[in-house]
Amino acid sequence: MPSASMSEDEKVFKDPVHGYIYVHDPVIWALINTKEVQRLRRIRQLGTASVTYPGGDHTRFSHSLGVYEVIRQILLAFERNNYAWPHHLDRLAMVSGLLHDVGHAAYSHALEPVIGMRHERWSERIILDPTTEVHQVLNEVYPGFAQHVADVIGKRYPNPLVVSLVSGQLDADRLDYLMRDSIFTGVDYGKFDLARIIRVMLPKEDKIVVRKSGLHTVEAYLLARYFMYWQVYFHPVNRSAEVILRMILERAKLIHESLFMPHPALRRLLREQSEMSLEDYLAIDDNVLTNAFNVWSSATDVVLSDLCRRWMGRHLFKYLEYPTSNLKAVFDIGQDVASLGFDPQYYCVVDETGTVYYDYYVGGEGTSGKEGALFLWDDEKAQLIEMSRLSKPISAIARERQMVRRLYLPEEVLSHPIIGPRIVQRMAPSDVR
């Protein structure tokens, strides 16, 4: 690599994470310049997180380039070390990394509940639809190449090594976005030694594993992921902006027939997603939604205009921690919210999110195990060992599904001299911020 089929011309992107991103393959370069990939320049990587971290407004485009570059570096490391890796699949792995997020909706994950389809499905549609520029580039590689790329992204490709590079516990996607999100938000504890992780990775028995000497480096990576979720991805102010964004779209869906649409694709998005064409989907990016919210700030519908003004002006909801044992309190709080003239459907919102930091396999040592588990390669014993068996930090977070539940309300409600204290009492014990 580069192979004989690749161009000698080198293209270079300057990047704050990797220093430089190098492109030698003309297929990669052609894909980067398709309109579907260029659209990712207009979609923020972290959705609404810039309301909390002003620097966190980097794009899905830079992340996609970064995932490609991580895979390229890993493949070069495999080649230098003469590992048993199927190098005829190098291009497939790099292309899949570049295109893994090509179907992301506007504001990243925030729009997925409204659309009702995860971005991976849209990525596959873009890759397989013969009308897209991405498909036309892929189709020129060889018949069926587009399907192979879609299968890697959809985790159906028969070679698990290629799939695990793009999607797994220690994949190029996570390796890039954790570092990238940490750098752009200024959150230092999201950083880890990426170069060393790449050095200690190797393919072994249909898995991407890590040399035993790299255990502590991977510990740092998993702990960085843990802290990034708590401090960035689950940040309550970030989630508040996302809650309001969702409420705007839910309200717009309800009244779309009487609502002015600054872009024709918006009506089909809000009407029925089953009627939405791929062309319409690709037409909607962050700019289109932000423009719509700006226009709807002057809408005659009081709820929609108020929500849009709050979102545009960063007048976000406050929150209460939401105890699962106090379900009736939410209904009662909804009545309190309604008594102040706010529709509780849009102004009394429970937000729930969560993740598993590391889902591991509990079983005997060896090569078999649950998909997604991380394994160390012990050269002396010539065997694979599931990582949490040797690591106390990893064992501590293994299989922990962290759920975060918060109740979001307008600041006017919580600051009301009578209603506010009563709501706090209903939710006690709680933490108001």
Describe this entry's structure for a reader.
The protein has 433 residues and is of the alpha+beta class. The protein folds into 2 domains: 11-186, Hypothetical protein af1432 (Orthogonal Bundle), CATH 1.10.3210.10; 237-354 and 403-427, Growth Hormone, Chain: A (Up-down Bundle), CATH 1.20.1250.30. It has 22 helices and 9 strands. It has helices at residues 26-32, 35-38, 60-80, 90-99, 112-115, 119-128, 133-139, 145-153, 160-166, 172-185, 194-200, 215-233, 236-254, 264-271, 278-283, 286-296, 302-313, 327-339, 344-347, 392-397, 411-414, 419-427, and strands at 11-15, 19-23, 201-204, 207-211, 318-321, 349-356, 375-378, 383-386, 401-409. Mean pLDDT is 89; it is low at 1-7 and 361-371.
Structural class comes to: alpha+beta
So how many helices?
Answer: 22
Strand order of the largest sheet: 3-4-7-8
| Total tally of structural domains | 2
CATH topology-level name of the largest domain = Hypothetical protein af1432
- Overall geometric form: globular
Low-confidence regions: 1-7, 361-371
Rounded mean pLDDT is 89
Please estimate the helix content.
40-55%
CATH class category label of the largest domain: Mainly Alpha
Total beta-strand segments: 9
Corresponding CATH superfamily of the largest domain: Hypothetical protein af1432
CATH architecture of the largest domain: Orthogonal Bundle
Q: What about the largest sheet?
A: 4 strands, mixed
* Residue fraction in strands: 5-15%
Taking Cα atoms only, what radius of gyration do you get, to the nearest Å? Answer: 23 Å
Spatial gap, N to C terminus:
53 Å
